[in-house]
Amino acid sequence: MKVKPAQVKGHAKSQKWKDVRGKRSRPPISSSELNSSPVIARMAKEHQASVKKQPTVKRLKSKAKPVSDSKKNTHQPAFKKSPTQANGSSAFTMDNGSNDSVDWKEYSQSINGNGLETSGDKQDVSPSRLEGEALHYCAERDDRQNHAVLVMEKDQTLCFRGKCFLTCLYGRVEVMGFTIEEGQQSYPLFSPASHCPLTIRAQESSDHSRDDRSEAAPILRKYLSAASRKKLLKWITSNSSIILLEPMETPLTRFLSSFTDRSELFSPPVSELMSAVLDTPLNGLGVIPLARGVDGLKMSSTYRDALNVVVSACRGDMDGCAVILVCGTKNVGKSTFIRSLINTLLNHTTSVDYLEGDLGQTEFTPAGCLSLSTVREPLLGPPFTHQCTPEHMIYYGHSSCEADLERYLESLKSLWRRRSPSRETPVIINTMGWVKGFGFQVLVDMIRFFPVSHVVQLGHSGITQCPALTPEFLRTAHGCQTHPPAQTALDELTENHSPPRSYTHLIVQSEFQGVGRQGTAKHQRTNEHRELSLLAYLSQLQSPDPGPIRSLNSLTPYQVPHTAVSLGVIHCEVVPNHMFYAANASLVGLCCLGEKVTSRGGPVLLSQAPICPCVGFGVLRGIDMARGLYFLLTPVDPTILRKVNCLLLGAISLPSCILTSQPGFEGEMPYVTTDYSFDLTGAGKLRVFKGLMRPSQMGMQ
């Protein structure tokens, strides 16, 4: 039997991690180009989105002030969008021939005030959305340097689709719970159609004694021409914030846009087209503002209260570190809540530990992984925009744990043991959306296994979709591995952490549109999210320099002897004679077994799924039986690859676009065939469930 590699060239090259923060500029896009795109051509479809007021979050200051409720006072903005205008422009007109035709000072104050008393009144108000004509007043673009400067007053917001680098030049702004101040680095913002749009919100300056214009003038001089600088400078007040927006092009964005079905990922979806503002100074930079018919992150009162309680606890004098477990049913906003919580905590601490327990919707890795990460940078985009290598990772190999509950729980315990007991960094534990039957029992086990200080349980429609996981309920609840009386199953896990005998139970009711239902629009389904994360990981194989995207067949692989590594299939049972057929052209986890791999001259095959560290992933591009070699593509550094002695094949498959989009071939593409029938007996895989018992058998242990 011989499985030939396709188009294997040369020997292994040294591969290195790519820095996705590298800035790449591109020519500005005109309004006519935007209007001629396929996205805008679909604007004839009727827009059904209802007009809602934009909620707001007042950032947590150094004293951990509570998150404000924007619904306490709802005021009408000083100007309204004309009902006949579809692009979000404001209703009033200007005489472009006169610089004094509009008293911009009154306009700015009306936008900033929005019903707010400026004499020290701190009541919460609905923020003003920057859209339409307002963006022509407060934004200026420098075509030569290909960037834009935007002046925002306190509580003004910019909700947008697209991607860009944001630098705060003056004042402070907040994005997804994270405060960005002047003097800090540039941060990449990602607002794709697959997730809720991002919102930039201006905050009140911490220094009210500043001479705003004299300090802002030299800042603007670096980025704008004299005419543009003069236009913006006279409207700057002590409550103003100035941000710099720059276009962003990275190996990730270039790689994703090379696939036809994802070329419009950072454009507004069909439901938002009528709210997209296309004629502003920001559009050519890859930023498309949205009118107030589209909501950004919507926080309920219980959402804000839970954030306040957790952040205050992390900043207080707790006995040990805070361990926050977040749980809830599918599509209820757990991941978004966790990103907001991490970003808010990063305003007060240098890092946050994150234990990944959701196999299907992972945050930092491709799907099918359990991991322990230390987060030091804010998460200003969905998971596929911040893929990285965790400190510790185990490849489970499936998007659900139902096939082998024991291996899932043992893997989580193994990760927790690797965390230093002396660490005082807050820990956030993410869980699956499986909250019924055995999934609920797994949640019970996790609360008992780890020294949990807070359980945040998300629900919707006034209920939690499963019993409330209060300390009282846990005293009588049955888990998969634990049973009443509730005691920690792993004494070694908690003896050094001094876990509290009880914990704080918080219920969050999500109120965003479509809560509890999987998205049906393009890019919004969970399987598409998993594919995006995997594509983002594989984008690290591309060159950091601008240029054409290289397909799998054009990349030089590593050559790995069969005798140097073992090969195992962890999601199903495969007979040894078919192992190579199953693994060829597949994604494999690069793992490190504790024992040395010994071979008798042939391939080493595993009969059981091990629980061992995983350092990354690779594509098994080909297998040469004659020479006894695996041909492997991976972005993992060669110094780390030397430790790898195990390749694990799981149920996480390569996106079909990786295999079908291979330019340069005539005839049949490598790895792609139509000569296969799923109607044959045994053509599909057999699902095996391990460790599942009927409820009636639970008391027999």
UniProtKB/TrEMBL annotation:
Protein keywords: ATP-binding, Kinase, Nucleotide-binding, Nucleus, rRNA processing, Transferase
Gene3D superfamilies: P-loop containing nucleotide triphosphate hydrolases
Compositional bias segments (type: Basic residues): 55-64
Clp1 P-loop domain sequence ranges: 328-461
Name of this protein: Polynucleotide 5'-hydroxyl-kinase NOL9
Top-level lineage group: Eukaryota
Major localization class: nucleus
Organism: Perca flavescens (American yellow perch)
Stated family: Belongs to the Clp1 family. NOL9/GRC3 subfamily.
GO cellular component, one term: nucleolus
Biased composition range(s): Polar residues: 28-38, 82-117
An MF annotation (GO) of this entry: polynucleotide 5'-hydroxyl-kinase activity
Domain NOL9 C-terminal: from-to ranges: 554-655
Cell compartment(s), UniProt: Nucleus, Nucleolus
Disordered: annotated span: 1-127
Record domain NOL9 N-terminal: where: 138-268
GO biological process assignments: cleavage in ITS2 between 5.8S rRNA and LSU-rRNA of tricistronic rRNA transcript (SSU-rRNA, 5.8S rRNA, LSU-rRNA)
Keyword ATP-binding: yes
